[in-house]
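Predict both folds.
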Amino acid sequence: MTVRALLRMLWPLALAGLVASPVRAGDCDQDRAAEQAQRAAERAARVAEHAAEKAQREAEVAAEKARRGAEYAAQQARRGAEVATERAREIARVAQERAQIAAERAQRAGQRVAERVRRQSESASDNGVIGTREGMIFVDGPEVPWEDVNWADDARSRRISRPMITDTLLRVGRGISLGLTNFSGDIVVKVWDRSEVHIKAEHDRSDRFFASMKNDMLKLSMRPRESAPADVEWALTVPVWLPLEISGNEGDIAVTGLRSSLRAHTMRGDVTVHSCQGPIEIYSVEGDVRAEDVNGYVTAVSVNSDVRLVRVTGPVEAQSINGDIQMEDVASANVSASTMNGQVYYSSAFQPRGRYAFSSHNGKIHVGVDDAERVNYTVSSFSGEVQTTVPVPPVPEAPAPRPYRRAMRFSFPTPPATPEPAPPAPPAPAAPPASSEPAKAWVPSQGARGPQPLLSYTPRAPEVELESFSGLIQLASREVVERALELRRAKLDSLRALRGMARAHRFEYKMRFHEKKSEKSQDDEDRDKDKK
């Protein structure tokens, strides 16, 4: 209510009061009436003033409420803008982190491809694949460009979603050995002259590095927080004197320069040992086993792949079931090599008084023979054949086919005959004319069910035993065996590379499917967060 409206309401009252006073009153009554009218007017004025003040206060309160409402609305709008800005920044930061992780992952994948290409190029002279700038050239196959070569690891383990690198140093002393167990991923070991172990592992952020000491053994492992372990790429630099025990399930193992004992086992992967010294035990089920420039007792086993030993000094024991055993430039006086369905190649010199045993059930045995060294050979076979490109003394023919193992012993090159003076003897009856063929002594074969021809024997010479059930035994010069070994290795490497490329394509499709599935689930999570 305004002041003007209040005056309009009080003015008729004041006028009515003046009119209501008696007309005929006296002067006193007129004065009293005037005073009353004045008082009424004053009261009306005070009431009007009070009403005006009240109206003014109400207007001020309303204005204050309106101002505060405007300020609150502005503050809420400003807070909403800040929240929206912060959310937009968070979304941009998460997108940037994901892009950075994807870029790092792509960079690491490129580095792995480059490293494998480098290894493939370096080993061009040892396998049937040659790496060039344009692609891969197979000795007995096509040329594959690098953009068509897809490398993929076995995807049976958990993929690395958030990669990180653990880099640390551990001090060790004499008398300590190192043990490492890895489920999936490659293991590379190098040496240095410090009493420290440098550990560099690339793994998922959810996994934790763990090291423990028990029974003088430092054990390293990566413990996953989830049920399935993720891939871990290990790169170790250890003291040259530190004994190692390494085991893996899916991944390659490479050790270089160690001067101590080594045990390396893996299920699906290759095991490579280079420039090491000491007792070495290397084992693989589905991968190749290779030892080069090694000095010490070597035990090499591969179930379904090949065993290759090059420039090994010391006793050798090699075994395989479905793979080949290839030995080149081996300097050992004790060699044992056996396989079931593979082939055995030996292109090395025989040591004096050495013992060599080569056996194969269904495969071939190729042994290089040197004319300059005299070796005693024992050849036995059940239903196989023996082929030689060197002159071997003739074997007497059996009177009838024998259903048991046939064996013969001879020395090559044949020692020259030394005439001995005949002792005096009484005259005897005339003997039948002597045959022009050399005399052949028959001695029983130990473990065989029949006689075995002893053609010639040289004492203190290397003893070589060749045994095959139904395979071929070939004695040839070292050059012939080396050429056969190169052709065999080129063929196997080409087939292995083609199978690896097909396997890589299959795993690539599988990994792409998992990536699309993970991206879809991540997008669903982001939408749920936005709704909240």
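Second protein follows, with its predicted structure tokens after the sequence.
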Amino acid sequence: MLCLIIGAFVIFRFCLDQFEKPVENLDDRWNFLVPSQLTPQRQYIQGFTVYYLLSMAIFLVASLFGPQIWGEIAKAIVGDNKLSGWKDYATFPIIVAFVMVGLYPNLRPPLAFDVEIWLRRVGHWMAYIPKNMVGLVNEMGFSGFDLTDDKVATAWSLIDLKRPAFEAPDLKSIGHLLDRLVVLYVRGAVLAGDLESHDLAILRNDIDLDVFKEFHEKLTSVSATIENLQTRLEELGRLSGTERRQAIAGAQRNIRKCLDVLYVIFACAVTAKGADQLEDRLRAIGFTSSFRSKQDIPWSPILKVVGLSAIVLLVGLMTASQTFLKAIDKSNQIPSNIVDEIRTVVAIVITLSLAIGIAIFIRTSLINRDKYFADKFAACVKIALICIAATLPFYLLFYIDGLVASGKFVGWIHQMVWSVVPATCGVMVAIVLDRPSNSRFERMTSGAILGTSLGIAAWGVVTLNAENGEVLWTYVLYILIVYGGFGFVIGFALPDAIHRYRDAQLNQMPQRVAALYNEVGRFFYDYGQFNEWLYARNPALGSKPPSDMLLEETGMDRLVSFVSETRKPFAATS
């Protein structure tokens, strides 16, 4: 056991060192960073834990079963029973550990057979390395920035430089970029302690200041570049023709390189504080993101959560109906065979899934028109009425055989009343989506709200449909377990899943915008013109902005073709 502990510690130290090495060459924009700076600490620890546990699994298997295997192999080859004593070597785990951390890496196996690199790649993937940095830096680069006249003037005054005049047409795009660079540099220099500004003191609460001290040399390099750019731009008046165009193009390249450095530094400072409230921190720095997640019905998380809930519900229903519910049920109202149980689950899942989709669709459309929060009561009434109308036919269809066989009109009425349950579900889903889902307590509270509401609604329907208003307590217990439990699971998991789905869509936008700009950038004078086109409604696209199409599966290819057919390359018109 002691040797296993020592071996596990050796593996742990080895994993600590290896996990800080990139799996592949990093982007030039952040090649001065190590993996721990490319993602929030919590995600880094999660990824490292996966990497270490996978390495420990290999170590334990080799340590516990290796001696016996090697002993049998040696016995088979040499034929000496004494060699089978390998299995009794207590120090074998230490041998395995040093082979894993010393001998095997120095053999430099081909990449396809390097197990450690594959395990590290899995760990980095779990830690979102470098995905987090890619998304955050791209979002900064393709977002707007707060460049009011007073903030720009203050920034130039703090670095004791005169802002160049950008009156010439070919300098307009540079002016905006250079102002952004100067304002962002000043904020970094203030946070690093190189400059003083009381107006920017609030930023210290949103980001990690140690990052700016760690990369102080990078900030100094940016400062020198800004001074050089200011001097060169002041001298542009003496240049003309090709020489002037080359000077402007060189200035643009230098500005973008410096901006990329600052984006990376600020991204590290932001993620060092954690993965939550990233948008708020970026907004505090001055970024005004124009990325919008397309607001449609997120069927993917809905179906995943409802499908998992349906499986849990079916297993629980079958177990309960065959055990304690069967023992106490004297009314024969509780489904007791597999066919009835499956039909009950299918009816619940389909009607409630439809109600959830309707609620999310209506809520989203009203929010987009600024009508949801203005009159939430009217929105809830609208959701309830549409849910009743949409689910009513399904209840009649699921139980059509029993209704026809009974020949009683009152039976049809009883089934129609059940549409109140999905109406309640739709309204309460809209309400729990308005609640936070950041903590387990908040999710449990949402689950309790939805579960209690569905349980009470189903109980009320059962009571209303009962003859003489009397319902056996065993059937009430069954209804509360089925609908209350199902509602709790949905309320607990669905809001968080939808919020993650929306965030994932939003995080995809910067990468897609970057890819689209790489494809069609030659058709625009500069990024500013491209950005205006991207978010302006276009009659040729059904009066929708191109950004709405960009998140569609084939949206990228369609937009590239559309731009190629409707615009001419900018170089051809200059």
